[in-house]
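Marked as duplicate of an earlier ticket. Keeping the data here for the record.
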Amino acid sequence: MQDSKLNKKGEFKILSLLAFIVILFLQIHIALAQTATFTKQSSGLYFTGNSNDPSTLYQDGIDGNLDIGIKLCDVGQRYVGAFYALRVQGIWKYALVSYDPSSSSALAFTDLASSESGCYETTPGYLTISPSQLTVTDPDVYMAAFPGRLWIGYSTTNNPGSVSDFVLGDTNAVFRGSYSVTRSFDQATKKISIGVPTVTFQTTGGSFSKSLSDINFGLSDKRRAAIGVCNDGNGFDCTDGDIFSSANFPAFNTGLVSVDDQTTYTKYVVINGLGNPICIGPNLRVSVDSVTPNPVYYSQELNISFTITNPRDVPYEINGGNVDVTTDFNVNVKIYNKTNPTQVIYETNIPISNTFVPDGSVSVTINWPAYAKSGFYTVKVEVDSNNDIAECNEADNSDTRDFELKPIVLPEIYIDGKANDTFPYPNQPYKLDFHFKDSDDKILNNATVDLIQVNGLSLSSPSQIFDLVIDDSNNTVKSGLITKTTTTFITDYYGNASFTFIPTYNKLYEPEYSYLNYQDTVGNYSLYFEGHTASGEPFNFIIDGKLTQQYPLKIANVSSNDLSHKEIYHKDLVSQSFNFIYHVFTNFLDTVLR
């Protein structure tokens, strides 16, 4: 028995729910079935005036406007009128802008059966779009002064006093024109403030614009407008709004109790049935500020700088940026081949925990050592890559910047058979071996290389310091010879070169000769090589993170020497050359001692 009661109670609940769904469906069906439009004139009415004279505003039957009527469907025959209207928290607020001239009635009767089933329309001439204000009707009639999409109100009497039944007119039921209105959401008050709208009036010959505060074209006691903040673009579901006769607007309630970075809301500033959207929510944006240096050379550090913002989308805030971002999110940085985005050579994720107020920003710089093949690459930075933040606009969450990566020369240097770029001691012979390739593993054959020694010992121009006369008063400064010896060689098919080399360090740089100020006079000692490929491209190197075309070689112990027996590469010709040098030396001694 108990089970039977439970079953009956359950059946009753199910039947009740089904009945509710059916009734709701019928209500929705009826609401959707109701339609209204202007007859005779497609695409709405034009403004009859010009920028100097409002004329008869949007009156029908004049200046390109046909004598229109109103057609209403699916509610039977009714008295109808055109309204600027909006529904605020279930209550309609409106300004009637048409009347029946035949009887000075607020509403005109749909006495003619339309060709469409279930539709009725007003008799031609029995409805006028109002160029003036009328107070003999009930409700009052105001000037049809502004653009809008009209709501068609209907009643069972011609002067009902108040109207509570409305149908949104279709795209024919419009006064042609538009509005531009600045709008801004305040997170603290949860309200939307608007500026004075600019009205664009469309005429048969073009258009012109006026402020809604204009004394001749704007709001007044006779020229009224329905303005509010709504959840839809036509004014059916509004949280705040009213009928305005002056351009003094309060901050409008949005109906929101709280906002955060996890939900966005689209609201509309509706003016006479025409919606102007505003998004309430954050809008993270990233912009790549710089990718330097460009070009970057292999192994060099590439600096990637970008800025993350939450920009308030002034003056309309269609893209939001008017709510704080307080939730942590990630930024994804990726480098890929410009012509093949699937070829990713670097990727990292950067956690961001900053708070971004509207218009707040944070700048970030990361460094990437450019170890990759030469070519053209793209840096892509994507903010909120894991979609942790609800945003008004996701389209600006990434930015890219292209750069070129160039190869460098990676020389292999061997001194007496050991990989090294430092000679142990000066002024003794070494076998010097080179192998040249670049960072793309390309062998640099037939390349020309210059091995240059500056201010070493010179057989042809021994070290000399002298007084240099610098003016006609015989003032002098210390000067001297700067010597530069260049050894030029060509790499073979395999990018190799080998020869005997003697780094001739000059002992005049030693402390015992400091009284000569040799270094200050002629400059430092240096030893380096440079070169170019067979095609003439200069060698580029990265030394201590910096780009240079000179590769330095060093001497470890300039103040001492350690002579030991070794085999001399190309011994016969090298020995013969030193025999010639010895003769030069003896000739020098003979000359000095005579």
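See parent ticket for discussion. The chain has a mean pLDDT of 92.
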